[in-house]
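Worked example 2:
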Amino acid sequence: MSLKKKLMEDFKISMKNKETIRKNTITMVRAAIKQKEVDERKQLGDEEIIDIISKQLKEKKNAIEDFKRGERQDLVELTQKEMDILLEYLPEQLTEEKIEEIVVKTIDEIGAETMKDMGLVMKSVMPKVKGRADGNTVSEIVKKHLK
Protein backbone atom coordinates (compact mmCIF):
# COMPACT_ATOMS: atom_id res chain seq x y z
CA MET A 1 0.00 0.00 0.00
CA SER A 2 1.37 3.41 -0.91
CA LEU A 3 2.02 5.92 1.83
CA LYS A 4 -0.65 8.20 0.44
CA LYS A 5 -3.29 5.45 0.63
CA LYS A 6 -2.16 4.49 4.13
CA LEU A 7 -2.57 8.11 5.24
CA MET A 8 -6.09 8.17 3.80
CA GLU A 9 -7.05 4.90 5.49
CA ASP A 10 -5.63 6.04 8.83
CA PHE A 11 -7.46 9.36 8.42
CA LYS A 12 -10.78 7.55 8.00
CA ILE A 13 -10.08 5.31 11.00
CA SER A 14 -9.11 8.28 13.18
CA MET A 15 -12.35 10.06 12.23
CA LYS A 16 -14.43 7.00 13.13
CA ASN A 17 -12.60 6.59 16.43
CA LYS A 18 -12.73 10.32 17.19
CA GLU A 19 -8.93 10.53 17.58
CA THR A 20 -8.60 14.29 17.16
CA ILE A 21 -4.81 14.59 17.43
CA ARG A 22 -4.20 11.78 14.91
CA LYS A 23 -6.83 13.18 12.53
CA ASN A 24 -5.37 16.69 12.71
CA THR A 25 -1.80 15.45 12.22
CA ILE A 26 -2.75 13.35 9.19
CA THR A 27 -4.75 16.28 7.78
CA MET A 28 -1.67 18.49 8.12
CA VAL A 29 0.49 15.94 6.25
CA ARG A 30 -2.11 15.41 3.52
CA ALA A 31 -2.45 19.19 3.05
CA ALA A 32 1.33 19.53 2.63
CA ILE A 33 1.32 16.67 0.10
CA LYS A 34 -1.56 18.20 -1.84
CA GLN A 35 0.13 21.61 -1.85
CA LYS A 36 3.35 20.16 -3.27
CA GLU A 37 1.41 18.17 -5.88
CA VAL A 38 -0.41 21.32 -7.00
CA ASP A 39 2.81 23.37 -7.05
CA GLU A 40 4.73 20.78 -9.07
CA ARG A 41 1.73 19.52 -11.10
CA LYS A 42 2.55 15.86 -10.48
CA GLN A 43 1.66 12.97 -8.19
CA LEU A 44 4.15 12.44 -5.38
CA GLY A 45 5.72 9.07 -4.68
CA ASP A 46 6.55 7.58 -1.31
CA GLU A 47 10.08 9.06 -1.30
CA GLU A 48 8.76 12.61 -1.72
CA ILE A 49 6.08 12.02 0.91
CA ILE A 50 8.76 10.81 3.32
CA ASP A 51 10.65 14.07 2.67
CA ILE A 52 7.53 16.07 3.55
CA ILE A 53 6.93 14.10 6.75
CA SER A 54 10.62 14.43 7.73
CA LYS A 55 10.43 18.18 7.22
CA GLN A 56 7.33 18.41 9.39
CA LEU A 57 8.98 16.30 12.07
CA LYS A 58 11.94 18.70 12.10
CA GLU A 59 9.58 21.67 12.43
CA LYS A 60 7.85 19.97 15.37
CA LYS A 61 11.21 19.39 17.11
CA ASN A 62 12.03 23.08 16.74
CA ALA A 63 8.58 24.04 18.02
CA ILE A 64 9.03 21.89 21.14
CA GLU A 65 12.16 23.87 22.02
CA ASP A 66 10.20 27.11 21.71
CA PHE A 67 7.34 25.75 23.81
CA LYS A 68 9.78 24.65 26.52
CA ARG A 69 11.30 28.13 26.61
CA GLY A 70 7.80 29.58 26.88
CA GLU A 71 6.98 27.09 29.66
CA ARG A 72 3.99 25.69 27.73
CA GLN A 73 4.00 22.06 28.86
CA ASP A 74 0.55 21.48 27.32
CA LEU A 75 1.87 22.38 23.87
CA VAL A 76 5.04 20.33 24.43
CA GLU A 77 2.92 17.24 25.16
CA LEU A 78 0.62 17.85 22.18
CA THR A 79 3.55 18.35 19.81
CA GLN A 80 5.26 15.22 21.15
CA LYS A 81 2.10 13.20 20.40
CA GLU A 82 2.05 14.65 16.87
CA MET A 83 5.72 13.70 16.42
CA ASP A 84 4.98 10.13 17.54
CA ILE A 85 2.23 9.92 14.91
CA LEU A 86 4.52 11.30 12.18
CA LEU A 87 7.23 8.77 13.09
CA GLU A 88 4.79 5.95 12.31
CA TYR A 89 4.93 6.93 8.63
CA LEU A 90 8.71 7.17 8.39
CA PRO A 91 11.11 4.26 7.97
CA GLU A 92 12.52 3.00 11.28
CA GLN A 93 14.82 5.66 12.71
CA LEU A 94 18.52 4.87 12.97
CA THR A 95 20.25 4.76 16.35
CA GLU A 96 23.13 7.14 17.01
CA GLU A 97 25.51 4.18 16.89
CA LYS A 98 24.29 3.20 13.42
CA ILE A 99 24.52 6.82 12.20
CA GLU A 100 28.06 7.01 13.60
CA GLU A 101 28.95 3.80 11.76
CA ILE A 102 27.68 5.27 8.46
CA VAL A 103 29.49 8.58 9.10
CA VAL A 104 32.84 6.89 9.89
CA LYS A 105 32.56 4.67 6.82
CA THR A 106 31.75 7.68 4.62
CA ILE A 107 34.64 9.73 6.04
CA ASP A 108 37.00 6.85 5.22
CA GLU A 109 35.55 6.46 1.71
CA ILE A 110 36.03 10.10 0.74
CA GLY A 111 39.21 10.67 2.75
CA ALA A 112 37.85 13.59 4.76
CA GLU A 113 40.04 14.89 7.57
CA THR A 114 39.24 18.47 8.54
CA MET A 115 36.15 20.56 9.16
CA LYS A 116 36.64 21.95 5.64
CA ASP A 117 35.41 18.57 4.38
CA MET A 118 32.21 18.70 6.43
CA GLY A 119 30.02 19.78 3.50
CA LEU A 120 31.33 16.93 1.39
CA VAL A 121 30.74 14.40 4.17
CA MET A 122 27.19 15.67 4.84
CA LYS A 123 26.42 15.58 1.12
CA SER A 124 27.50 11.93 1.01
CA VAL A 125 25.87 10.81 4.29
CA MET A 126 22.42 12.42 4.03
CA PRO A 127 21.16 10.33 1.07
CA LYS A 128 22.21 7.19 2.95
CA VAL A 129 20.13 8.09 6.01
CA LYS A 130 17.27 9.85 4.21
CA GLY A 131 14.10 9.80 6.30
CA ARG A 132 15.77 7.67 8.96
CA ALA A 133 17.88 10.27 10.78
CA ASP A 134 17.73 13.93 11.68
CA GLY A 135 20.21 16.19 9.88
CA ASN A 136 21.22 17.90 13.13
CA THR A 137 22.15 14.57 14.71
CA VAL A 138 24.17 13.60 11.65
CA SER A 139 25.90 16.99 11.69
CA GLU A 140 26.91 16.63 15.35
CA ILE A 141 28.35 13.16 14.72
CA VAL A 142 30.30 14.38 11.66
CA LYS A 143 31.72 17.30 13.69
CA LYS A 144 32.82 14.84 16.37
CA HIS A 145 34.86 12.85 13.83
CA LEU A 146 36.48 15.71 11.91
CA LYS A 147 39.36 17.81 13.25
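Residues 46-69 form the longest helix (24 residues). The two ends are 45 Å apart (CA to CA).
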